[in-house]
């Protein structure tokens, strides 16, 4: 995903790895090239500008002009700043509550249902949780079917109420059901729309008010680039969610959303999904991602 960005950054550091004395002009050129590379990777302009301003401050503070290996020094500064930009350290999800309730929100097609299955799988296999998946997308029978199939694949029960069109009721009943069966984690999948609309937002907000989830996750398709960041902002204004899940990182994405979503929305990126298989889900680690970007 980051091939192009990695290449471009490497080339920009070469300006500092050449022979002779490093000048302020060399540093400025490097920073300009880093900024361009980020913008071409679909990082929002303002984020790229603030980022390179920050790198410049750090570079001057570290006396890059007189350093023995200015190229290496700059690489390290950029790596550390990228990790910070993406949130610094990994953020876990909150599983407080009996049961812990995790609410999943996002546009239709973003990968919500697939992610719900993957998260159930991860919590069950890696964290020994007992999980109930809840089909809250009451408008699309296909979505309910899809969740049932995923539940079967990962060995997790799926709660549905055929004919009930009230997602708040379904979620509340599912939680009661989980309590009765001693299931400690409930994942509620919700209905999305093709674009942000008030009715959808109100519906998800109503479910959130009713079930008071310990964790609300917003799912977004990385391939939508800067739109991903804009949608993340709109959902956050309305839902004040706890974390972001970026999907389809295996697809044709330049990676900008992964880099900039944290600083634009001020909510941590918690999971990245990179495939349709149930185990294609990873906890997001900013530092590992920064290493990957620098190649
Ligand atoms: P929902 O409408 O938000 O519930 O989205 P779905 O979970 O139904 O996903 C929409 C499509 O994207 C489906 O065809 C999924 O198989 C596919 N999909 C979901 N996550 C990923 C991913 O990480 N990578 C790829 N390549 N496809 C994905």
Automatic annotation (TrEMBL):
Keyword Phosphoprotein listed: no
EC assignment: 3.6.5.4
Top-rank taxon: Bacteria
Keyword annotations from UniProtKB, A to Z: Cytoplasm, GTP-binding, Hydrolase, Nucleotide-binding, Ribonucleoprotein, RNA-binding, Signal recognition particle
Location in or out of the cell: Cytoplasm
UniProt entry tagged with the keyword RNA-binding: yes
Binding positions (GTP): 106-113, 189-193, 247-250
Primary localisation category: cytoplasm
Domain (SRP54-type proteins GTP-binding) ranges: 268-281
Catalytic activity: GTP + H2O = GDP + phosphate + H(+)
Subunit structure: Part of the signal recognition particle protein translocation system, which is composed of SRP and FtsY.
Record function comment: Involved in targeting and insertion of nascent membrane proteins into the cytoplasmic membrane. Binds to the hydrophobic signal sequence of the ribosome-nascent chain (RNC) as it emerges from the ribosomes. The SRP-RNC complex is then targeted to the cytoplasmic membrane where it interacts with the SRP receptor FtsY.
Family indicated by similarity: Belongs to the GTP-binding SRP family. SRP54 subfamily.
Record comment regarding domains: Composed of three domains: the N-terminal N domain, which is responsible for interactions with the ribosome, the central G domain, which binds GTP, and the C-terminal M domain, which binds the RNA and the signal sequence of the RNC.
Protein name listed in UniProt: Signal recognition particle protein
Organism per entry: Alistipes inops
Gene symbol of the encoding locus: ffh
Residues of the full protein shown: 1 to 295 of 439
